[in-house]
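Q: For a teaching session next week I want to show students how multiple molecules come together into a single three-dimensional assembly. I've collected the sequence lines for a complex. Could you give me the predicted structure tokens for the whole thing so I can convert them for display?
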Amino acid sequence: MGTETDGDSPFESTASYEQTPLEVYQNKFDRAVGGPLGVLWEDYRGRFGILLVGFYVLMGTVGVALVPQPKPNMGPRYVQPFQDPNFILGTDGLGQGLFSLMVHATPPMLKMILAGAIFANLLGVSVGLYTGYVGGATDKAIMSFVDTLNSIPGIPLLIILAAILEPTNPFLIGIILSVQRWTGRVRTIRSQVIPLANEEHVEAARALGDSKSTVLVREILPHLLPYIFIGFLGGATGIVFASVGLYFLGILPFDTQNWGIVLNFAYEQSGAMYSLEAAHWLLVPLVTIVGLTVGLTLLAQAFDQVFNPRVRARHRARGTDPGEEADEQEPTTSDVGRTRVE
Amino acid sequence: MAYLRDRLIQAVVTIWGIVTLSFFLNKSLPGGPIEALQADIRESPFKYGLSQNPSQEDVNRVIEGLVQIPPDKPLWEAYVDYVTQVFVEFDFGQSISVAGGTDVMPLILQRAPWTIFLSTVGLLYGAIIGILLGSVMAYYEGTKFDIGMSVSIVLSRSIPYYIAAIFLLFVLGFQWGWFPTGGRVNPDLEPGMNPDWVISVFYYATLPALSFILTGFGGRALGMRANSIRLLGSEYIHNARLRGLSTYRISVTYLARNAILPIWTSIVVSLGGLLGGSVILERIFQYPGMGDLMFEAARLRDFPVLMGALIMVTFLFVLGTLIADFTYPLIDPRADMKASRE
Amino acid sequence: MTASVNTERTGVASQETVLEVRDVSVTYDTARGRARVLDDVSLDVHRGETLAVIGESGSGKSTFGSVLMDGVEDPGITSGEVLYYPESGGEPVDITGVSSRKLRQIRWEEIAIVSQAGSNSFNPAISIRRHFTDTFRAHDVSREAGLERARESLRELDLNPQRILNAYQHELSGGEKQRTQLALALVFDPNVLVLDEPTAGLDLLVQQRLLGQLYDLQEEYDLTMVFISHDIPVVAGFADRVAVMYAFEFVEFGDAADILLSPEHPYTRLLSQANLGPDISLDAVRRIGGDPPDPVNVPSGCPFHTRCPIADDRCAEEKPELRADEADTHEVSCFYPDTAVAEIPHSGGPASGDEQ
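A: Of course. Below is the structure for the complete assembly, covering every listed component.
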């Protein structure tokens, strides 16, 4: 932003131009996503994460078209993995190819994640934004409600809801799974909004008469993008956990196989626990599930590394931050023999 | 003191909230308990001790006995009735599934201690291991040990606890036979506080607790590590060293003591996750606790039990958080009792 | 080492050395290169004197203070020797090379430090009393005897022992914290006391009071004090000798009166100009242009040449050594001290008169 000084005193100056909301967002996007994306790739965790998650997304989109639908008796039962080229991961007790099972179970999972994460974030962020900004009695009331909901342990609540509603649509399931989750988002977002709400540019916008929503969207929201991103990923992991868990318990109704169901079958029906022969029926979904969650977690960790200013500052101080040009002096914080050089 | 008072009020509000929620779930959701009951009673009246073609009155009476909600009374009255029943008489109604319509409350109370036991064991051990590990990691920061541990922690946190449970059960329980594969205590032993029995209880609880511990310790460790590292550069630590204090003294009283503070409440909050997760865990290990009760109830659509268990679990969680809040000032002399901790 | 009150005053600062710093450097490695926060520094501290070390933020003076008790921690590396003479005419000990047990006996019992007024030397989770008792235990002093001494120490600084010992760090005001730190540092009756910006951030009245107490304490305990500050007026009435630091080394050094009234190094002269005081108007204050030196990248030749008004080519290439000036009143590291005196104006004398 350029400034021009008025002739008389250095204290009076006007800005040369104003940023339109689009430019604000573009700017933020570049700084918040574009740049860090490159850094993410550098970080081995980010790279792994991107690869892993990308793999699953591929499985769920392209893979579904390429890999045949699982059906009972597509092949002999209990084929061991890596034996038969037709069934790379072997077959289960019903003669279904495990690889097909895994692949075709991915789209519902992805849908659930999407629906759930979007729902939780949408609700959580908007409520968090609003209540953090408004403060006062409204804030107290809303937070009381949020805290109450937050105090209900997730799984029992989900069980009850699932038992009552018996949902089958993966999008709907995703939303239900997030019912408890969005409350956590509210707290996080709110704690970020509170300090921001007092900053100058927000005050300025308010003084200029901008409506509340304009202020929220233009001035505050851009700063929150990093947290929203990370929260999105965290929520995704949670949804995978919860959905697999509930399917495994048999509480959620199913029409097609998915990871949790396969686990369920393996656990209950095969005696896979007892014998090594059917072990792969158990282990394949296990590994598949863990693969996705590990990928998501790695991504989240890498994001956190990128966005967390305190971590970055510490790295800068130690001189170990990759690609950070330190033009400030090194010996400012606790470095040289833990004494402060003044 | 004001802060604690707020927390107490919030706790009460939460309990009230969950009871209200339970009431509404019972009453209003389509496919909800009351409707289901109505249908079921008409279909098989004998199950409920009624003769063929029962009158509406009879049906209502039965429902009221079971769910504590008379279906035809006006909303307000029914609500007040319900709430009084719950709070004053601790009467959650009667189980649909258990023979003879046993009262829900005793059922739950019978199972609850086991779940509490399991959760507490998991929590305590996980916390202690995590804290110790985190401190050690901070001390050896940057070494292979630290890095290696960090990586394993990332992995272990990505694995849902029930998957670890299945895996542990499979390997350590069935395949290698090191640990029992179900139940909570050796049925041949005389129950009571005798050493054999107590040891057996712990023995049976090992695998379930381990599942929690192995997947949960990482969070504590990382938090502890981060806090410790942050504190290591502090002036007061340097000062303590200059004064000649032993490494042990510094690690415990100067470092760890302060590093724990931020994670204290989060440790107890994780209790909620443990209580909720007990549903799946107890199912996997055939551990007859409250979680298992919930599972069975969900399967049989036994709503009174479900609701009762939900309320109980929430209550336990709220109790846990209150304990955390009330004990925090004991360890942190700075605890600002006046303002709300946001 | 028992606690005892030294009632004998050995008079004004002797010429006898109590600490000898020889060619000490402190370095540590960063991503950008090796940082040198103390550059081949040598200095003698005389028994019983008050030595002021002056410099701006980032000049290395705090590191110097640390070095006096070998207090520089990883990743900093200390090279060189620091010799400590325990008693008059005794054998010196190189504290940088001594065993950790001996070091523990020297630190706090013989040489103690009080850190910056803004920083926090106290563990927020434990009481002040605990700090004292922990220190006693570490030095094999009985708890009762130690606490007796602690109370005495606190009383001397106008603090209520009962209240202070029971308090936690956050319950004390800035001035109280500093004085408590001082009491803790003096509890074993050390010979040398290093004070790193003890008055920074305290209000004027509190500052004055603290300085007064320091003066009295020095008399009573025959302390040698190394007083580190960026604020010249604070040390003006107090110091026996002054050492000026710039770019991690000493650029001027000598008797206080000399250095403060007629400094010869351009930096010292400019420094006096840069100080604000009640009788200096805003436009008279001249800032020293340019940036403070970067420990990884110290300017070639004379480190001050990039900001010096009288610097020439020689200054950019050759590095001046600390050596006695013509009148032999003090040591300067500059090629043109006379030019400096002639061309750079100097507001002579302590600005706000902190005479004790």
